[in-house]
Amino acid sequence: MTRRLRVSVDYERCTGVGACEQVCPEVFFMRDDGLPEVLEPEPHETLWAAVERAEDACPDEAVILEWVDEEGPA
Ligand code: SF4
Predict the structure, then answer these.
(1) Per-residue pLDDT tens digits of the chain, which is 74 residues long
(2) What is the number of structural domains in the chain?
(3) Which residues line ligand 1 (CB under 6 A)?
(4) Coil, strand or helix at 33
(5) Is the alpha carbon torsion for 25, 45, 57, 63 positive or negative?
(6) From 8, 12, 15, 33, mutation site for ligand 1 pocket: most ligand atoms within 8 A of C-beta
(7) N vs C: which end of the chain shows fewer Cβ within 10 Å?
């Protein structure tokens, strides 16, 4: 079983506070228009803890995390 994490931003909710980039700049990048871009939509597991901290830090609950379990060779 392989586990992957998919990261996205709900732009309907995001108000461009930028906490996500401060907490996890490897994955979130604030664009010139004031909204974050997800640089790594499926980040390596070494970044999962930082991405979860970014989710916690977002005041608008706009960081969306989806866990995907896949069957496959171990
Ligand atoms: S912390 Fe949340 S509200 Fe702020 S820019 Fe990131 S996703 Fe948007």
Answers:
(1) 889 999 999 999 999 989 999 999 999 999 999 999 999 999 999 999 999 999 999 999 999 999 999 887 65
(2) 1
(3) 9, 14-20, 36, 58, 60, 62-63
(4) coil
(5) positive
(6) 15
(7) C
Distance from the first to the final alpha carbon of the chain:
6
Whether the Cβ atoms of residue 45 and residue 6 lie closer than 8 Å to each other = no
Nearest atom in ligand 1 to the alpha carbon of residue 19 is 1
Q: What is the CATH number of the domain that holds 34?
A: 3.30.70.20
Range of the domain at 15: 2-70
